Amino acid sequence: MQTQSLWEHTLTFFPQFLATLRERVAPDATIAVVGASDGKFVLPLATAGYRVVAIERDTLAVHGGKVRLPGDSDVHAMGLIDRLKLEKLHARVRVIEEDFLVGEPLDVQCEAVWTSCSWHYSANHHRPLSEFVDRMQRLVRPGGVFGAEFMMPVEKHHHSVEHYTSPERLHRHFLSDWDVLLTLSTNEFTERPHIGRPHDHTHRMGLLLATRTFTLTDRF
Ligand SMILES: C[S@@+](CC[C@H](N)C(=O)[O-])C[C@H]1O[C@@H](n2cnc3c(N)ncnc32)[C@H](O)[C@@H]1O
Questions:
Q1: The model's pTM
Q2: Is residue 194 part of a domain?
Q3: Are 47 and 1 a contacting pair, CB within 8 Å?
Q4: Is residue 9 part of a domain?
Q5: Atom 8 (ligand 1): residue with closest C-alpha?
Q6: Residue 179: which CATH number?
Q7: Structural domain includes residue 162
Q8: 33 occurs within a structural domain
C-alpha cells in the first residue's frame, strides 16, 4: 500500500476479526465499518476483496486536511476518499459521511460489521451505548458477523461513562438472535503518542465477536 493511516500503529484485534470473516462470509461479501476514519481497516478489507461500506462523521478523516501530529508538527493528512482513489480501491467502497447515531438507522444490509474504538467518543455519550450496538446489529444479515473492539475504563471518570465498557457488560446485548464467538481483553498497556494524544498514555481494550443466528423465517 502506498498510503498510511494516521492510526496505523495503534493496537488492534482486527486480525481476529479478519480470521472470523474468512471462516464465515463469502470472499466478496459486504462489510460495514462504523467510524471508518481515514481507512485503517477499510483499505485492507477492500484489498482483501470485500466490498466495504465506510461510515464516518469526521470531515477531516473523510476529506483530509491539516492535522497536528505528536511533536507539534502540522502536516497535511490524506483523507479516506483520496487514499481510496490513490490505491485504486474506490470502486469497492461506499463512503457514507454521516453521524451513525443521527436520523433513522441506515437501511444497509451487510455480511459483517466492524468498529474500532469509536463508540466511546464523547459525541456519542448523549445516546445510550445500547443504541450504538443495536444500530450496528441491524446492519448484519443472519449468519453474518458483528465485531467491535472498544476502550475499557482506565481513568476514574471512565467508570461513570457506560461507553467505556467490557466484554462481560456487552454480553447482555447479544442474548437473543446472537451467538458470541469470542471475547478478549487486554491488561492496561502503554500506547505511544498518536493523533489527538500527544503523549504516552494508558489504554485497556476489549474485543467482542458474535454471529447473528438464523431464525425459521430466515431459512424459508
Ligand atoms: C479512534 S477513531 C478510529 C481509529 C481506528 N482505531 C482506526 O485505526 O482507524 C474512531 C473514529 O470513529 C468515528 N466515529 C465515532 N463516533 C461516530 C459516529 N457516531 N458516527 C460516525 N463516525 C463516528 C470518529 O470520528 C473517528 O474517526
A1: 0.94
A2: yes
A3: yes
A4: no
A5: 7
A6: 3.40.50.150
A7: yes
A8: yes
Give the Cα separation of 8 and 5 in Å (integer): 5
**Residue of the nearest CA to atom 6 in ligand 1?**
116
Cell numbers for 155, please give them. Answer: 481513568
C-alpha cell at 158: 471512565
Q: How many residues does the chain have?
A: 220
Among 16, 19, 9, which residue's Cα sits nearest to residue 167? 16
The preferred substitution site among 34, 67, 121 for testing ligand 1, maximizing ligand atoms within 8 Å of CB, is 121
Q: Which of 5, 42, 56, 197 to mutate to test the pocket of ligand 1 (most atoms within 8 A of CB)?
A: 56
Please tell me if the CB atom of residue 150 comes closer than 6 angstroms to any atom of ligand 1.
Answer: no
Condensed to tens digits (0 to 9), the pLDDT of residues 27-72 reads 999 999 999 999 999 999 999 999 999 999 999 999 999 988 777 7
Model confidence pLDDT, tens digit, residues 140-165: 999 999 999 999 999 999 999 999 99
